[in-house]
Amino acid sequence: MSRMPKLPLAVTMGEPAGIGGDILLKAWVEHGGALPPFFVIDEPARLIGLARRLGLEVPVREITTPAEARDTFHQALPVLAQSLATSVIPGSPDPRNAPAVIASIDRAVALTLGGEAAGVVTLPISKHILHQGGFTHPGHTEYLAELAQKAGHPAVAPIMMLSCDAVKVIPVTVHLSLRDAIVSLTSEAIVTAGRQVAQSLRDFFARPNPRLAVAALNPHGGENGDMGREEIDIIAPAVAQLQAEGIDAFGPTPADTLFHPEARDGYDACLCMYHDQALIPIKTIDFHHGVNVTLGLPFIRTSPDHGTAFGIAGSGKANPSSFVAALRQAAEMVIRHERAVLAAERAAAHTPS
């Protein structure tokens, strides 16, 4: 990247028994010189031991403030200390460490909202393990929204977008069973997602006139109601509303024809009706470079588009590419935001009073 954000990115611990530490350390070793500066909120001793286990030479330097990270980053991995309740065995998660995982997220968000970090990049968590430790949210997205609301941003309506160079997809319903997703799907949810995605594509992805595809829910788009009426009763009215608001949206289009190369050339992002309808295509098209971006928060947040992979944790087999892409995506979004703020300030300075 030719330009870096003014502030470092805050990286959360993620599930310490998963591959988060592996990809963090490998990314710093393999790509450090080309990455935006960041610091990780984690236990320094754990990372030192993990680097030794992986055979990686990573000098770990404990910092006390995010401001130290930018000068430290190219000589050592900056770590803002977060103690764990018990030692970590790769591949064997322990719910006793759940409070530290959650605290890492809390601190990253607080530091970003407080103007000490440029954005948040979250390493993968295990929802099941966190739930055993008392976590009550379906996932990262919902928890980040609550943190933003508690910090004084009550109108937050976060939208999950999965992004790679080839495609951007948005699940309108997210962490629900397929049965519950179908029941909960509404025109209002589709319109809300479409508005946020269109605005974010303009603000952060250099798409001044974004085009949105909207996927059908049922096979063959419902066959005019013969295979379900959701397209007629829910999705088509939402598309019409988006169009009425000046958003270039089209659909509902059968999902099985939306993701081949020629189809993808016709839109900037695709609204999908449920989780796997969105995630299967992006993970098939570019598994190692997908990035999870949360739109609609008062801060920038990205994450690798994969899970904890307990089966290979601590083995050195984990691929850091998605984490690297998440760091770069966050930095690009920060830079575009900084440019937009600067342009607005300049315009205001030249506006006659």
From TrEMBL:
Enzyme nomenclature, EC number: 1.1.1.262
Catalytic activity: 4-(phosphooxy)-L-threonine + NAD(+) = 3-amino-2-oxopropyl phosphate + CO2 + NADH
Cellular localization per UniProt: Cytoplasm
Cofactor note: Binds 1 divalent metal cation per subunit. Can use ions such as Zn(2+), Mg(2+) or Co(2+).
Record-stated family: Belongs to the PdxA family.
Assembly mode: Homodimer.
Function: Catalyzes the NAD(P)-dependent oxidation of 4-(phosphooxy)-L-threonine (HTP) into 2-amino-3-oxo-4-(phosphooxy)butyric acid which spontaneously decarboxylates to form 3-amino-2-oxopropyl phosphate (AHAP).
Protein name per UniProt: 4-hydroxythreonine-4-phosphate dehydrogenase
Gene that this sequence comes from: pdxA
